[in-house]
Amino acid sequence: MSSKGYKYMSLAGRDFREKTENQITDEFTSILKDGVHGMCFSPYLEHQKPGDKISDKQIIDKIKIIKPYTKWIRIFSTTDGNERIAKIAHDFGLKTLVGAWIGKDHDKNLDEIRSVVDIAKAGYADIVAVGNEVMLREDVSEELLINYIDMVKSQISGVPVGYVDAYYEFGDRPKISEVCDVILANCYPFWEGCSLEHSLLYMKDMFRRATKAANGKKVIISETGWPNIGTKFWGAVPSRENAVKYFINTYNWAKEDNIEIFYFSTFDEAWKVEDEGDVGAYWGLWDKNGNHKYALESMISEVNSDTRE
């Protein structure tokens, strides 16, 4: 078949070989300008980390920056000020995937659960996630996590309840998949050392495995992304070029196959260096000061102007 006029991208993604850097940046900017399904929301300022109290002002300031470019945001916690993010996001017309953070502290977990239930009952959660990568970190037992999920499901209605973890955990733990209304799978070719050239194929297989484990339930990619600075991880190399290409391939595939994806992340986060090494601070589409890292400023200014009118 002739490639002339062929409208679908290849299994491996866009062929960038004959594209200039400006053309690639232009394509990235066009996708961002059109808006994506969802983004993982980082509320913290440069000097903050999880556990610190966050203010309404910093939440509002950051949501104003990202609002033109996404329909949903994902929230990771419902305490220490994070419980106000969902209402503020709804006030700005955004939908929310609201997460109760589950860790080793049982009393803190119960606080998160009570808060996420209150948020859902108030109408500010469109999807609820009970825990993020809890099995991956081995913070609690599988049985206790299922009890937490059931606890939330018993108190709210009309809102899908799921759990977020690495895609393969759902196949390894069918009891968790069974109790979830929706499967929320984190898919990171980068963290499995995959080169940029093969990363889209790799992510498609991650999604396929999560879909198989879901057994007919909806699967959402709750996190994926690529850092632009830091030490390479096996074949995965952080760079501006690779981050932009990964974003383009991700959202062209999402559009073509109708996949709902939450991109990680909105803003660079310095606190993540402690757990993830030097790459941890550079996953954002915006830098720590709220400046676009990759987009053409002329097109972005046009979007910002439209939202002010």
Automatic annotation (TrEMBL):
Record Gene3D superfamilies: Glycosidases
Keywords: Carbohydrate metabolism, Cell membrane, Cell wall, Cell wall biogenesis/degradation, Glycoprotein, Hydrolase, Membrane, Polysaccharide degradation, Secreted, Signal
Localization annotation: Cell membrane; Secreted, Cell wall
GO molecular-function terms, A-Z: hydrolase activity, hydrolyzing O-glycosyl compounds
GO cellular component: plasma membrane
Main location: membrane
InterPro entries, per the entry: Beta-glucan_modifiers, GH, Glyco_hydro_17
Keyword Glycoprotein in record: yes
GO biological process: cell wall organization; polysaccharide catabolic process
PANTHER family: GLUCAN 1,3-BETA-GLUCOSIDASE, GLUCAN ENDO-1,3-BETA-GLUCOSIDASE BTGC
Official protein name in the record: Endo-1,3-beta-glucanase btgC
Organism of origin: Thiospirochaeta perfilievii
